[in-house]
Specification:
By secondary structure, the chain is an alpha/beta fold. Helix content is 50%, strand content 16%. A seven-stranded parallel beta sheet has the order 3-2-1-4-5-6-9, with helices on both faces. A two-stranded parallel sheet has the order 7-8.
Length: 254
C-alpha cells in the first residue's frame, strides 16, 4: 500500500490531485482545515477504489502542525504533496497585518518547516516530494506582490531541496500552474478570464500524476503558461512588470 499525503486537499487543485491519485493500493491522507469538505473528498477517493483518511489541520496553528508531524513521522510516506496556498489580489501597501502573516506562513514558512521537521522520515522512506507553486514564481510586480514573492521563494526553496536531497534518493517535483478555475481565482478576480488562459483543476492533477510517474523535476502546466514564462525571460523585466500591473488592475479585486 502506498501512502500519499496531500496538504490542502479539501477543494480546488488539491482535491483534484487526491482524486487523480486515488486507486487500489493507494491510501490518501487528506489534510486541511475544512473537515466536512475533506470527508467529501475521502468518499470520492474510496469510490475510485483507493482508501483515504482525514486529518484536520490549520497550518497557522502551532499545535496542529505539531500533531500533524507527530502522526506523519509514524507512517511511511511515499508521496508528500504540499498544495495549500493563499492569495490576496492587492498591493502590498493595502494589505492588513493578518493577511501578510497568513500568506507568508501558508505559502512559504510552513512548507519550509514541514520539510525540515519531516526530513528524517523523507530520507528513510525515499519520499517523492511535490510542491505546488505557480507561474507567478517566474515573475514579480505590484498588484499581487506577496503572492509573487512567496511563490518565487517556494520555487527557489524546492529547487534547492531537490539538489540537496537527490543523493539521498529523494525525488522533488515543482509544479507551476497558471490560472486554474478554483475558488482562489473566482474569489479574487473581478472579470471573467478567457478560457484560453484558465485550465481546470482536473487538468493540473493529470499533469501532476504524469510528472510524478516520469520523475520530473519541474513542470509548467499549460502551453500558454510555458509561452508566458518564455517571453518573461526575454522581455526586459521592467516592461514585463508594467504589463503585469495593468493586467492585475483589470482582473484582480482590491
Ligand atoms: N487557482 C489558481 O489559479 C492557481 C494558479 C497557480 C497556482 N496555484 C496554487 O495551487 C495551490 C492550490 O490552489 P487552489 O487554486 O486549489 O486554491 P483553493 O481552491 O483556494 O484551495 C486552497 C487549499 O489550501 C488550503 N489552505 C489554505 N489555508 C490553509 C490553512 N491555514 N491550513 C490548511 N490548509 C489551508 C485550503 O484548505 P482549507 O480551506 O480546508 O483549510 C485548500 O485546500 C495553491 O498553492 C495555489 O497557490 C493556484
Amino acid at each position: 500500500m502506498e501512502n500519499i499525503v496531500i496538504i490542502g486537499a479539501s477543494k480546488g487543485i488539491g482535491k483534484a490531485i487526491s482524486l487523480e491519485l486515488a486507486k487500489k493500493n493507494k491510501h490518501i491522507i487528506l489534510v486541511s482545515r475544512d473537515k466536512e469538505n475533506l470527508e467529501k473528498t475521502k468518499l470520492v477517493c474510496e469510490e475510485k477504489g483507493g482508501s483515504a483518511e482525514v486529518f484536520k489541520c490549520d497550518l497557522l496553528n502551532e499545535q496542529d502542525i505539531k500533531a500533524l508531524c507527530e502522526y506523519l513521522k509514524r507512517i511511511k510516506i511515499d508521496i508528500f504533496i504540499y498544495n495549500s496556498g493563499v492569495v490576496y489580489g492587492k498591493d502590498f501597501s493595502n494589505m492588513k497585518e493578518e493577511e501578510i502573516n497568513n500568506i507568508l506562513n501558508v505559502n512559504a514558512i510552513v512548507p519550509t518547516r514541514l520539510t525540515h521537521l519531516l526530513m528524517e522520515t523523507f530520507e528513510k522512506n525515499k519520499t517523492h516530494i511535490v510542491y505546488i507553486g505557480s507561474i507567478a514564481s517566474y515573475f514579480f510586480g505590484p498588484g499581487c506582490t506577496l503572492y509573487f514573492a512567496t511563490k518565487n521563494y517556494l520555487k527557489t526553496f524546492a529547487y534547492g531541496v531537490y539538489e540537496e536531497f537527490k543523493r539521498k534518493g529523494i525525488k522533488v517535483l515543482t509544479v507551476s500552474p497558471g490560472f486554474v478555475a478554483t475558488d482562489m481565482v473566482f474569489n479574487n478576480t473581478k472579470k471573467e478570464l478567457g478560457s484560453a488562459f484558465i485550465c481546470t483543476p482536473e487538468f493540473v492533477a493529470k499533469e501532476v500524476r504524469k510528472a510524478i510517474e516520469k520523475k520530473k523535476r519541474k513542470i509548467i502546466v499549460g502551453k500558454i503558461n510555458k509561452l508566458m514564462v518564455f517571453f518573461g525571460r526575454i522581455i526586459p523585466s521592467k516592461l514585463f512588470g508594467k504589463v503585469f500591473y495593468k493586467v492585475a488592475k483589470v482582473y484582480l479585486k482590491e
